[in-house]
Write a structure and sequence with these properties.
The chain has helices at 14-23, 28-34, 105-119, 134-142, and strands at 2-3, 7-10, 60-67, 72-83, 88-95, 124-130, 146-157, 160-170. It has 186 residues and is α+β, with helices and mostly antiparallel strands. It has one domain: Aminopeptidase (3-Layer(aba) Sandwich), CATH 3.40.630.30. Strands 1-2-3-4-5-6-8-7 form an eight-stranded mixed β-sheet. Strand 3 (60-67) and strand 4 (72-83) form a beta hairpin. The longest helix is centred in the middle third of the chain and has 15 residues, at 105-119.
Amino acid sequence: MLSGELIGLRARTAADIEVFEAEMLNDVEMRVRADGRPWRPIAPGSAASPYRTVDERADTVPFSVVELATAELAGEAVIFGIDPHHRNAHLGLGLRPAFRGRHLGTDIVRVLCRYGFGIRGLHRLQVETLADNHPMINAATRAGFTLEGTLRDYAWVDGHFADAVFLGQLATDWSPHPPNDAPGGP
């Protein structure tokens, strides 16, 4: 397991997938904001579930997030779109409803950076999120990401267009020993 101050990242298990599907699969508010595709109801166990990896894709590494203080499954994290030639990738995370608001996001992003930069040897990591997703934007900026731009009316979200923001961090800007700053920071 890759451990931070508050969380650990480990391999996703079948039991984890069952929890994600029970609590997050049909969480309409979260799914319409987290997925670029239109929301549709998906039955747990379906091959269409975003929590099931049908094939082991070389460009995606899914993790389960465990809160270290409680040893409970807190959510999921992923590095995806890994491009070995350009040495870049994207990252994302999703927390179970009971774990939202606990300031775990910054630690999750930092541990994903350690995996991406320190273990995979990537040069650039990127976060794309809706401009009003302040928890993700704050977690990424506290973890050293820089706001790089806004795409106006980028996403169709629950009946209206919404702006998206892009944040990036380069390996040359990353520190494996971040400063002690805000909640969720070492």
